[in-house]
Amino acid sequence: MILEPIVPNVLSVRRLPHAVPALVRAYGGDPDKHTSLGLVTVDQDDPTYVALDECTKFAPVDVIFAKSFYAGAAHASGKLSGEILGVIGASDPESIDQALDALVRCLAHDACFYDADGKRTITVFPHVIASLGEYLSRQAGLAPGEPMAYLVAPPMEATIGLDAAMKAAAVRAVKVMTPPTETNFSAAWLTGTLDECEAAAVAYAAAVVDVAGAPKR
Predict the structure, then answer these.
(1) Domain total for the chain?
(2) What is the CATH number of the domain that holds 167?
(3) Does pTM top 0.85 for this prediction?
(4) Is residue 1 part of a domain?
(5) Residue 3 lies in a domain
C-alpha cells in the first residue's frame, strides 16, 4: 500500500530572543528559564506535535504551548494561522534556532498526513515515532526513547482503523481521543516494540483506506 504524502505547509516561523515575562507566563513557560521563544504555525496539527517532540531531541528546549485550532485549517482565523500554534522556550536564542531547524526538517521530510481516497477528501496519519522525545513522552506517560504509533483519521475511519491496528499487533493503547476534537478528527497513541508499532500503523492505514473505498458495508 503506497499512499500519497500531503506535506505540511509551515505558514509562519518567528523568534523572540528576549521575550517579555508576561508573555512567557501566558503561554505556560517559566520566565526565569524560558527567556527566548520560538513560534510556529502550520496547516497540519498532528505532524506538528510530532515535529515539536522531534525538536526536543536536538536542542535543550521545552514545548511550553501547543494547541490545535477549532474546525481545522480550512476555517483558520487568518492566512498564517493554519491548524496549530506551537511555542518552544529556551534559555538562549541559539537553542531556539537549532530546535526550529529540526522542527521544519521533520515537517518537510518525515511527519505528514496521507491521502486515503485519492481525492484528499479523506486523510490519515499513520505515523510511528521510533524514539520519543521529551514532549510527547510526557504527554503519553511513557519514557523518552520508547516507540509510539501516533494514529489519526476522521471519526468513522479512525474507529475502524484502531480496531484493526490493535488486532494486528501486540500493542497497548496509551491514549484514545474520541470525537469531537478541535479539528473533529479522532486519534490514538499506541505503544509496544517498534516492529509492533509499525505493524499497527500499517493495519490502521489499510483500514482507513478500506472505509474510504467502501463506506457502507
Answers:
(1) 2
(2) 3.30.70.1710
(3) yes
(4) no
(5) no
Nearest to 40 by CA among 32, 30, 31, 49: 49
Rg, Å, the chain Cα set = 17
| Total residues belonging to the chain | 217
Which grid cell is 73?
485549517
34 and 107 within one domain: yes
What is the span of the domain harbouring residue 120?
Answer: 116-213
Burial 17-31 (b: 16+ CB within 10 A, else e): eebeeeebeebebee
pLDDT in tens, 108-155: 999 999 999 999 999 999 999 999 999 999 999 999 999 999 999 999
DSSP 28-61: T--TTT--EEEEEEES-HHHHHHHHHHHTTTSS-
